[in-house]
Amino acid sequence: MTTLLEEVRPEVVLANWTNAIKRSALQEMLAAASRPGVISFALGLPAPELFPVNEFEQAVSSVLGSDPRALQYQPPFTPLKSQIVELMRRRGVYCREEQVFLTAGAQQGMNLLVRLLLEPGGQLLMEEMIYPGFQQLVEPFAPDLLLVSTDPETGMNVDEVEALLKSGRRPSFIYAITDGHNPLSVSLSRRKREKLVALASTYGVPIIEDDAYGFLSYDGPLDPPLRAMDEDWVFYVGSFSKILAPALRVGWIIVPEKLMRPLSVIKEASDIDTATFSQRTVSAYLAAGHLPNHLSRLHKEYRLRRETMHAALLEHFPAGSHWQKPKSGVFMWVELPGGLDAGELLQHAINKEQVAFVPGGAFRASTHWSQRQSLRLNFSHCAPPQIEEGVTRLARAIADVTDHAKCYDQMVPIN
Amino acid sequence: MTTLLEEVRPEVVLANWTNAIKRSALQEMLAAASRPGVISFALGLPAPELFPVNEFEQAVSSVLGSDPRALQYQPPFTPLKSQIVELMRRRGVYCREEQVFLTAGAQQGMNLLVRLLLEPGGQLLMEEMIYPGFQQLVEPFAPDLLLVSTDPETGMNVDEVEALLKSGRRPSFIYAITDGHNPLSVSLSRRKREKLVALASTYGVPIIEDDAYGFLSYDGPLDPPLRAMDEDWVFYVGSFSKILAPALRVGWIIVPEKLMRPLSVIKEASDIDTATFSQRTVSAYLAAGHLPNHLSRLHKEYRLRRETMHAALLEHFPAGSHWQKPKSGVFMWVELPGGLDAGELLQHAINKEQVAFVPGGAFRASTHWSQRQSLRLNFSHCAPPQIEEGVTRLARAIADVTDHAKCYDQMVPIN
User: Fold this and answer.
1) What are the tens digits of pLDDT across the range A12-35?
2) CA B348 to CA B400: how far, in whole Å?
3) CA-CA distance, B137 to B131, in Å (whole number)?
4) Which of A256, A395, B182, B361 meets the CB 3.0–4.6 Å disulfide criterion with B131?
């Protein structure tokens, strides 16, 4: 006997935009790359063995020992703001404490700025290949995306930006990663920096400058970021995640003073804006003077890892592969020759060779622009011997998948 | 000579909803209440001298000493989830690890749930007098508010909820603070809890249950929260802010398993979702078994402070004042007799008597419902002698303002 009357149970109704939610590429990679034995070039992870654990523990003790208000609801910790003003001078940026807004990392900084600037259904301008975490955070706004291309050697196509603005488009903002671009690993050329900033102020379109990697440089100082050239139209986003430790969740934005109040209301509504414990700990770490040596150590070690990966790619990857040696950031962007599918390669690489990366297509903002033959490889997380081993494995996977594709090509005419 | 041609400089255009942004009442109070010499009953601050600083420092050391990945990008810390499952049993809630989602405090928990459920311009149901941080977080959605009243002794008017649902309204959710209501300090009666949960499941409208104060109880165990009665329609929000320390920013939500994935995408887009350092620290603190004693200490000390405030109000406040002794939470809600204006009183109280509170009107969600004669007084932050002194000062300020009002009343007929 079957029940004729099926009970109709109501279902929780979610906001419409959530229909578009898929498990993010980042989450998929976290899952796959954390399997034991897998060498992972997938995520932008810092080298855990370089975390300044002892200095950080000292900082915690000094904070807890000096003031129990470190654990209390407290306004953003002002001494850290003035330390950030000092730090920004290393990037050639001169700003004031009153322009520094503390955040729970760069991702939250971008989130607050986007909520400040973007209407639902509003327009924004960004590159076709771009950090998926940024795409994810604008998704609930169902934005109208103006996309421009990126040159692998000089960065964002600023002429395309100009053409869009000249044609009358007025996006709420332009999103730019000036150095250590994620995923393309390029630094924007000096000429393009100047032109982009001039366009922003001429057309009255602010730039959200994501400088999460700007304090990592491997071939001498980088060009100053956009914020060094304009304080009215460039809203700068910085972070301690890549130079100190990600799990602290401390970052900052630098904005015109008049935006501090609306930002603080948005931040308070998001999370009460009272993460003073981690802010005080970072401040104590900086006050103890550890950062310059730590940065030198990171530069030296990450430079070595970049060289190791470059040499291994030269030795093992097929002829016709292309990549640049990045001046900043933590990624190599590799284009493979021929008709290889990076998604297929990833499955093979993880299952047969125990090595992971992110296929280029994961960074595409446009559905009609393919990136089948490109890979993003991280070089900061693995130690040099692992990098060599991982690239060797990956080259083997490429050879396998290529052979398989050839066999298949040969079979097709027979059928 | 004047310049005839004024240069027209473009201005940064902000999202429309930001026009409504005002400096929040909470921020104003933080500023006024932090002036030296002011006794503040304004904010819901825990007693800083009760923070378990030493135990927390031990927890940090054990975390940093055992695993450098504590500072790395890491998925939410699963052992803390199972500790929260244990903790929830103290509230009579039986849930599974797979239903626990870690957040940066209760405010973020509510934020994530609201983004999950509410459309721009969507409808929601809440009380007329309610936590301003919640009003602030729904503001960018320009929501259509269905407001119900609150009984000072039994809580939210559930009959009004029923009438709205019966009339065909289907809000995206109902917001409820079951215990230690902010600002009214009431606990929802058992009968109303049952009815509210039944309404939610009958009409298919989820409840966001804010239980930030639910682990603080002064007259024996509280009734179980709504989540104990229904796991499909009640989305529970909890926090370590009031029972451990606010600056850690660790909270949790309990939701049906199928909502974990969309929530994790929203959280990742907000702040990367990798605050594992504070999560591990809280977990180490709990693992060391400190919480039960700490809770007993909080209950004992806050009960004493509540009694002190009650006695001081009885002794010093004018006849005709009304308040309840709350079973939970950290506030007393006081209604004054006569035509006194609490906003005017606050100015006088801060400037002349150096004592601060929040006027009832700050919690109003509706513009047409006045709360001129009510005050919210916090009793958790100040030590008992300060509470006595503060209430004495406040009573003096009330007498002054009342006298002044009387003089003014007498003057009016003369003019």
Assistant:
1) 888 888 877 765 554 565 576 678
2) 9
3) 11
4) B182
For the entire predicted model, the pTM comes to: 0.92
The radius of gyration of chain B from alpha carbons, rounded to an integer in Å, stands at: 23
**A352 token code pair:** 């047969």
Interhelix angle B78-89/B276-287, rounded to 10 degrees, is 50
Long-range contact set of residues B316-324: C-beta below 8 Å, sequence gap at least 24: B316/B391, B316/B392, B316/B394, B316/B395, B317/B391, B317/B395, B317/B398, B318/B395, B318/B398, B318/B399, B318/B402, B322/B152, B324/B152, B324/B153, B324/B185, B324/B186
B24, B264, B272 ranked by CB distance to A268: nearest: B24
**Backbone torsion region of residue B97, taken as left when φ is above 0, otherwise alpha when ψ lies between -120 and 50, otherwise beta:** alpha
Residue with tokens 């995640």: A241
Between the alpha carbon of residue A354 and those of residues A314, A345, B74, the distances in Å are: 21, 12, 20
Task: Give me the interface pTM, i.e. the ipTM.
Answer: 0.89
Angle of helix A291-316 versus helix A384-414 axis, rounded to 10: 30
Find residues 297-316 of chain B whose CB sits inside 8 Å of chain A: none
Contact B51 A72 (CB under 8 A): yes
B149 close to A (CB below 8 A): no
Say whether residue B356 is in contact with chain A using an 8 A CB cutoff.
no
pLDDT at residue number B140:
87
CA distance B125 to B164: 9
| Cα distance between residue A251 and residue A210, in whole Å | 11
Peptide linkage before A262 cis (omega within 30 of 0)? no
> Which amino acid is present at A273?
D
pLDDT in tens, A386-413: 999 999 999 999 999 988 766 655 444 4
* DSSP characters over B36-90: TT-EE-SS-PPPGGGS-HHHHHHHHHHHHHH-GGGGS-----HHHHHHHHHHHHT
Query: In angstroms, rounded to a whole number, what is the distance separating the alpha carbons of residues B19 and A5?
Result: 52
Note whether A186 and A153 are within 8 A (CB): yes
Picking from B292, B250, B230, the residue whose alpha carbon sits closest to that of residue B86 is B292
User: What's the pLDDT score for residue B23?
Assistant: 57
Q: HSE of A195 in the Cβ direction (CA atoms, 13 Å)? A: 16
User: What is the Cα–Cα distance from B288 to B272, expressed in whole angstroms?
Assistant: 29
Do residues B367 and B31 make contact, with C-beta atoms less than 8 angstroms apart? no
Q: How far is A270 from chain B (nearest CA, A)?
A: 6
Interface test with A, best of B7, B8, B11, B14 (most A CBs within 10 A): B14
Distance CA A402, CA A395 (A): 10
pLDDT score recorded for residue B9: 60
Q: Do B276 and A247 lie within an 8 Å CB cutoff?
A: yes
Low-confidence ranges of chain B (pLDDT < 50): 1-7, 26, 410-415
CB contact under 8 A, A14 and B116: yes
Considering only the beta carbons, identify the residue of B119, B249, B264 that sits closest to A271: B249
Distance CA A295, CA A55 (A): 14
Examine the pLDDT at A281 and tell me if it is beyond 60: yes
Select the residue of B24, B48, B70 nearest A68 (Cβ to Cβ): B48
Q: B268 by DSSP, 3-state: which?
A: helix
Contacts of B63 in chain A (CB under 8 A): none
- pLDDT tens-digit profile of A133-181? 999 899 888 999 999 999 999 999 999 999 999 999 999 999 999 999 9
The answer to whether A239 and A247 have CB atoms below 8 angstroms apart is no
Helix (H, G, I), strand (E, B) or coil at A103: strand
CB atoms within 10 A of CB B92: 14
Region A97-120 average pLDDT: 96
Rounded to the nearest integer, the mean pLDDT of chain A is: 91
Residue of A11, A245, A265 with shortest CB distance to B24: A265
Segment A300-322 shows an average pLDDT of: 97
